[in-house]
Amino acid sequence: MDKPQESRTTAAYDHVTMFELAPVSLWLEDYSGLRRLFDAWRAAGISDLRAYLGEDRARVQACSAEIRIVEVNRRTLDLFGAADRDDLIRHLPVVFRDEMLLTHIDELVQLWSGATRFGGDTVNYRLDGRRLDVHLQGTILPGHEATWDRVLVAIEDISEREYARKRQAASEAYAQGLFEHSPVSLWVEDFSRIKQLLDGLRQRGIADFRVFTDVHPEFVNQCAAEIRVIDVNKRTLDLFGAADRATLLRHLPDIFRDAMVRDFREQLIQLWDGHLFHTREVVNYTIEGVELHLLLQFSVLPGHERDWSLVQIALTDITARKKAEAYLEYLGRHDVLTQLLNRAHYSEEMKRLERKKLFPVSIVIADLNGLKTANDRLGHAAGDSLLRRAGEVLNKVTEAPASAARIGGDEFALLLPFTDERGTGEIIKQIRNLVQLNNQFYPGQPLSFAIGAATAMPGESLEQAARRADLAMYADKRAQKLSSGPLCEAAE
Fold first, then answer.
1. Using CA atoms, how far apart are residues 32 and 30, in angstroms rounded to an integer?
2. In angstroms, rounded to a whole number, what is the distance separating the alpha carbons of residues 76 and 229?
3. By Cβ atoms counted within 10 A, which residue in 130, 370, 381, 399 is the most buried?
4. Which InterPro entries match (predicted)?
5. Dihedral of the alpha carbons of 37, 41, 43, 48, in degrees to the nearest 10
6. pLDDT of residue 332
7. In what order do the strands lie in the sheet with 361-368?
8. 8-state DSSP, 327
């Protein structure tokens, strides 16, 4: 007759032992006071508990105050750093505070709605103040559904998991921030379809991709159409003048055109040759059509080398640098004051014409009359004005392949390939007519030239022709002085 009683005693002992030695924090609690509070609120007409609790946090605290702790296990004491149950109870305001009250609302609403199980992630604190991220699960024990006087709550410490999740989220946010706020234009694109197209060519036995695209230029356009833009950053929108990503994508044909087709072909050749990272200078256009010179850096991102499904393209605006380089190159070839070519380029052009044998080549030497007088009597500003006017006239009479250069302080030269003496005479006539027209628009110091010309035929060096043209110029200057009489001083 004693065995059934012994079995019941053993079972009770086992349950106590399991509770005490459980590897998770267990709380046996009495929620009957909370049940009575809920009944009172319902009787008062409260229907939306979440809204009611949200209006006043003191109401949440009132709910918590109705919960009584019956027992906790050893793991609970260890987790919260309490010496014993009474120590833990004394410090409950330290354990349950701050954002825990907000997450507690979800648990209360679950119970209000009739659930016998509730749970969620929340925040507790150890007695020493250290934060604990925990996952809470509560169950109204069977047989106590009417009174809620026995509720078992299990708390799992997920602090490390939450810390790792937050670090990952922070890392992702940091990476996204770097992408979004990068000072250069960044594009994330999918080139997987291009990889498939190139692999298909290899399977067909194509070995020389450059030759293949020479014969089939339409393949380059086919590849360009297969690029899928995944994301762009804000700098990209600003650079190309797009209000948003959708606007940018609609205008891609306006942005990537003209010389970009050639540049893209070179990119494909580099990819064909296995260069998954490469750099080159390209030309794109804003949505409004403004030309942009860009440094393009292309990279297949690590882990995507097999399929090219994720690539990053960085575009750095080098338009200002290219303009500066072009201006420096211009300065190296031109006389700033007259906008004509300088003597160095004139000498190079003479060598080129001789090397290419572009005969006949005529050379016109023009000396600006009155420059020294203008500088001495009226100042260098007046002299500079004469030089600029001379440049305007000579620029107007020269069209490629002809060229005009300032080869000395007041001396100019025209190189006229494929031009004989008759054609040269027409050029000189144009110069004279333009000088007359120029003097009508610039009253005061008159513009005039002493001009000489010579034509080099095959077998004669251009230096010899230049000397003959120079002598002819001096002859014209003497003739002008004789015709001017005593006023010749103004004509040097």
1. 6
2. 52
3. 370
4. Biofilm_reg_signaling, GGDEF_dom, Nucleotide_cyclase, PAS-like_dom_sf, PAS_4, Rev_trsase/Diguanyl_cyclase
5. -140
6. 82
7. 403-406, 411-417, 361-368, 449-456
8. H
Tokens of 232: 């762009």
End-to-end CA distance of the chain: 146
Sign of CA dihedral 32, 33, 38, 39: positive
- What is the residue whose two structure tokens read 């120079």? 470
* 24 in Cβ contact with 76 (< 8 Å): no
The least confident of 32-46, 93-107, 150-164, 398-412 is 93-107
Q: Does residue 13 carry a pLDDT above 60?
A: no
Task: Count other C-beta atoms under 10 Å from residue 163's C-beta.
Answer: 12
Q: Give the Cα-Cα-Cα angle 312, 315, 320 (nearest 5 degrees).
A: 170
Cα angle 273, 278, 283; round to 5: 115
Rounded-to-integer distance, Cα 143 and Cα 121, Å: 27
Residues in Cβ contact with 172 at an 8 Å cutoff, skipping those fewer than 6 apart: none
CA torsion angle 73 76 78 82 (round to 10) = -100
The strand pairing partners of 123, in sequence order, are 133
Q: pLDDT tens, 281-298?
A: 999 999 999 999 999 999
Q: Which residues contact 84 (CB under 8 A, 6 or more apart)?
A: 77
Mean pLDDT of 270-279: 95
The residue that leads in pLDDT, 176 or 215, is 215
pLDDT in tens, 375-417: 888 888 888 999 999 999 999 999 989 999 999 999 999 999 9
The DSSP 8-state label assigned to residue 131 in this structure reads E
Tell me, yes or no, if the pTM score tops 0.90. Answer: no
Residue 462 corresponds to which tokens in the numbers above?
Answer: 């251009």
- Write the CB contacts of 200 (distance below 8 Å, at least 6 apart in sequence): none
Question: Scanning the structure block, which residue is given the tokens 């991709």?
Answer: 209
Q: Choose between 235 and 329: higher pLDDT.
A: 235
For residue 279, what are the β-bridge partners?
297
Spatial distance between the Cα atoms of 144 and 151, rounded to a whole number of angstroms: 8
| Largest pairwise CA distance in the chain | 157
